[in-house]
Design a protein that fits this description.
Elements (H helix, E strand, L loop, with lengths): L1 E4 L4 H12 L4 E5 L6 H5 L3 E4 L5 H8 L4 E3 L8 H5 L5 H18 L13 H6 L1 H12 L7 H8 L12 H19 L7
Parallel strand pairs: 1-2, 1-4, 2-3
Helix pairs in contact: 5-9, 7-8
Protein backbone atom coordinates (compact mmCIF):
# COMPACT_ATOMS: atom_id res chain seq x y z
CA UNK A 1 0.00 0.00 0.00
CA UNK A 2 1.32 3.42 -1.01
CA UNK A 3 -0.05 6.51 0.73
CA UNK A 4 -0.23 9.61 -1.45
CA UNK A 5 -0.84 13.10 -0.10
CA UNK A 6 -1.77 15.87 -2.53
CA UNK A 7 -3.41 13.28 -4.77
CA UNK A 8 -5.96 15.82 -6.04
CA UNK A 9 -3.10 17.97 -7.38
CA UNK A 10 -0.96 17.50 -10.47
CA UNK A 11 2.13 15.93 -8.91
CA UNK A 12 0.40 13.69 -6.35
CA UNK A 13 -2.17 12.70 -8.98
CA UNK A 14 0.56 11.72 -11.43
CA UNK A 15 2.30 9.63 -8.78
CA UNK A 16 -0.99 7.86 -7.99
CA UNK A 17 -1.82 7.25 -11.68
CA UNK A 18 1.58 5.64 -12.21
CA UNK A 19 1.18 3.41 -9.17
CA UNK A 20 -2.33 2.37 -10.21
CA UNK A 21 -1.09 1.66 -13.75
CA UNK A 22 1.46 -0.69 -12.16
CA UNK A 23 -1.35 -2.45 -10.23
CA UNK A 24 -0.08 -1.08 -6.92
CA UNK A 25 -2.51 -0.38 -4.04
CA UNK A 26 -2.91 3.33 -3.31
CA UNK A 27 -4.27 5.10 -0.26
CA UNK A 28 -5.43 8.61 -1.11
CA UNK A 29 -4.81 10.92 1.84
CA UNK A 30 -7.14 13.90 1.44
CA UNK A 31 -8.48 16.75 3.58
CA UNK A 32 -11.96 16.43 2.08
CA UNK A 33 -13.25 12.93 1.31
CA UNK A 34 -15.62 14.30 -1.37
CA UNK A 35 -12.61 15.56 -3.36
CA UNK A 36 -11.16 12.04 -3.31
CA UNK A 37 -14.26 10.27 -4.66
CA UNK A 38 -12.87 10.12 -8.20
CA UNK A 39 -9.79 8.35 -6.83
CA UNK A 40 -11.94 5.91 -4.90
CA UNK A 41 -13.69 5.02 -8.17
CA UNK A 42 -10.25 4.24 -9.62
CA UNK A 43 -9.61 1.81 -6.77
CA UNK A 44 -7.88 3.96 -4.16
CA UNK A 45 -8.58 3.63 -0.48
CA UNK A 46 -9.63 7.04 0.92
CA UNK A 47 -8.36 8.38 4.24
CA UNK A 48 -9.02 11.82 5.65
CA UNK A 49 -6.02 13.66 7.12
CA UNK A 50 -4.70 17.20 7.09
CA UNK A 51 -0.99 17.79 6.41
CA UNK A 52 -0.83 19.86 9.61
CA UNK A 53 -2.22 17.07 11.81
CA UNK A 54 0.66 14.74 12.70
CA UNK A 55 -1.62 12.30 14.53
CA UNK A 56 -3.99 11.96 11.57
CA UNK A 57 -1.04 11.52 9.21
CA UNK A 58 0.43 8.82 11.44
CA UNK A 59 -2.87 6.93 11.25
CA UNK A 60 -3.15 7.51 7.51
CA UNK A 61 0.37 6.18 6.90
CA UNK A 62 0.01 3.12 9.15
CA UNK A 63 0.59 -0.16 7.32
CA UNK A 64 1.94 1.44 4.15
CA UNK A 65 5.01 0.39 2.22
CA UNK A 66 5.85 3.94 1.24
CA UNK A 67 4.50 7.47 1.56
CA UNK A 68 4.56 10.35 -0.92
CA UNK A 69 4.32 13.80 0.64
CA UNK A 70 4.57 17.01 -1.31
CA UNK A 71 4.46 19.59 1.43
CA UNK A 72 2.92 23.02 0.93
CA UNK A 73 5.20 26.08 1.17
CA UNK A 74 3.71 27.09 4.53
CA UNK A 75 4.22 23.70 6.18
CA UNK A 76 5.75 23.71 9.69
CA UNK A 77 8.56 21.15 9.44
CA UNK A 78 9.54 21.68 13.07
CA UNK A 79 6.15 20.45 14.25
CA UNK A 80 6.57 17.23 12.28
CA UNK A 81 10.21 16.89 13.32
CA UNK A 82 9.22 17.23 16.99
CA UNK A 83 6.48 14.58 16.68
CA UNK A 84 7.51 11.65 18.89
CA UNK A 85 7.95 8.40 17.00
CA UNK A 86 7.94 5.31 19.23
CA UNK A 87 11.32 3.55 19.40
CA UNK A 88 9.62 0.29 18.53
CA UNK A 89 8.91 1.65 15.03
CA UNK A 90 12.64 2.16 14.44
CA UNK A 91 13.43 -1.30 15.79
CA UNK A 92 10.72 -2.98 13.73
CA UNK A 93 11.83 -1.10 10.60
CA UNK A 94 15.43 -2.20 11.20
CA UNK A 95 14.37 -5.81 11.81
CA UNK A 96 12.24 -5.78 8.67
CA UNK A 97 15.21 -4.51 6.64
CA UNK A 98 17.43 -7.26 8.05
CA UNK A 99 14.91 -9.97 7.14
CA UNK A 100 14.45 -8.57 3.61
CA UNK A 101 18.22 -8.66 3.18
CA UNK A 102 18.48 -12.22 4.50
CA UNK A 103 15.63 -13.37 2.22
CA UNK A 104 17.38 -11.84 -0.79
CA UNK A 105 20.46 -13.94 -0.01
CA UNK A 106 18.60 -17.28 0.01
CA UNK A 107 19.47 -18.08 -3.60
CA UNK A 108 23.14 -17.15 -3.25
CA UNK A 109 25.76 -19.83 -2.72
CA UNK A 110 26.93 -19.53 0.92
CA UNK A 111 30.54 -19.62 -0.31
CA UNK A 112 29.84 -16.27 -1.99
CA UNK A 113 28.67 -14.57 1.21
CA UNK A 114 30.99 -13.01 3.78
CA UNK A 115 29.13 -12.26 7.00
CA UNK A 116 30.55 -9.08 8.52
CA UNK A 117 29.37 -6.92 11.37
CA UNK A 118 29.90 -3.20 11.54
CA UNK A 119 30.98 -3.73 15.15
CA UNK A 120 33.86 -5.94 13.93
CA UNK A 121 34.94 -3.25 11.50
CA UNK A 122 35.00 -0.69 14.29
CA UNK A 123 36.65 -2.82 16.98
CA UNK A 124 39.26 -4.55 14.79
CA UNK A 125 39.34 -2.79 11.41
CA UNK A 126 42.67 -4.21 10.25
CA UNK A 127 41.66 -7.86 10.71
CA UNK A 128 38.17 -7.26 9.32
CA UNK A 129 39.42 -5.43 6.22
CA UNK A 130 42.12 -8.05 5.63
CA UNK A 131 39.41 -10.72 5.83
CA UNK A 132 37.33 -8.78 3.29
CA UNK A 133 40.26 -8.39 0.89
CA UNK A 134 41.07 -12.12 1.11
CA UNK A 135 37.43 -13.04 0.52
CA UNK A 136 37.24 -10.78 -2.52
CA UNK A 137 40.66 -12.03 -3.68
CA UNK A 138 41.95 -8.53 -4.23
CA UNK A 139 45.30 -6.92 -3.63
CA UNK A 140 44.78 -3.74 -1.73
CA UNK A 141 46.92 -0.68 -2.36
CA UNK A 142 49.25 0.58 0.33
CA UNK A 143 47.43 2.77 2.80
CA UNK A 144 43.99 1.35 2.01
CA UNK A 145 43.55 -0.32 5.39
CA UNK A 146 44.65 2.86 7.21
CA UNK A 147 42.28 4.96 5.12
CA UNK A 148 39.39 2.53 5.72
CA UNK A 149 40.16 2.36 9.44
CA UNK A 150 39.88 6.14 9.69
CA UNK A 151 36.58 6.08 7.77
CA UNK A 152 35.13 3.46 10.14
CA UNK A 153 35.37 5.46 13.35
CA UNK A 154 32.29 4.63 15.33
CA UNK A 155 30.13 7.45 16.65
CA UNK A 156 29.12 7.10 20.29
CA UNK A 157 26.20 4.75 20.74
CA UNK A 158 22.90 6.49 21.40
CA UNK A 159 21.48 3.17 22.62
CA UNK A 160 23.53 3.36 25.82
CA UNK A 161 22.17 6.88 26.44
CA UNK A 162 18.56 5.71 26.43
CA UNK A 163 16.69 5.34 29.69
CA UNK A 164 16.17 1.68 30.66
CA UNK A 165 12.48 1.52 29.65
CA UNK A 166 13.26 2.85 26.14
CA UNK A 167 16.28 0.58 25.79
CA UNK A 168 14.17 -2.45 26.71
CA UNK A 169 11.45 -1.51 24.20
CA UNK A 170 14.00 -1.01 21.42
CA UNK A 171 15.76 -4.29 22.29
CA UNK A 172 12.45 -6.16 22.18
CA UNK A 173 11.66 -4.74 18.72
CA UNK A 174 15.10 -5.77 17.41
CA UNK A 175 15.44 -9.11 19.25
CA UNK A 176 14.42 -11.51 16.48
CA UNK A 177 16.64 -9.95 13.82
CA UNK A 178 19.54 -9.63 16.28
CA UNK A 179 19.30 -13.36 17.05
CA UNK A 180 19.32 -14.13 13.34
CA UNK A 181 22.44 -12.00 12.86
CA UNK A 182 24.39 -12.67 16.05
CA UNK A 183 22.99 -15.88 17.52
CA UNK A 184 21.46 -16.37 20.98
CA UNK A 185 24.05 -14.15 22.71
CA UNK A 186 22.80 -11.13 20.78
CA UNK A 187 24.84 -8.22 19.41
CA UNK A 188 27.98 -6.89 21.02
CA UNK A 189 27.27 -3.79 23.08
Amino acid sequence: MFAITGITGKVGGEVARNLLAGNQPVRAVVRDLRKGEAWAQLGCELVRADINDAGALTSAFKGTKSVFVLVPPNFDFQELWDYPIPLERFGLHWSSSIFRGLRSLRGVDPAQILPMAYEDLVTDPTATLDRLARFMEIDVPDGWVSWAEAAAKRPPSKWSQLAEPERSRLDAACRIANRRLYGPAGPPV
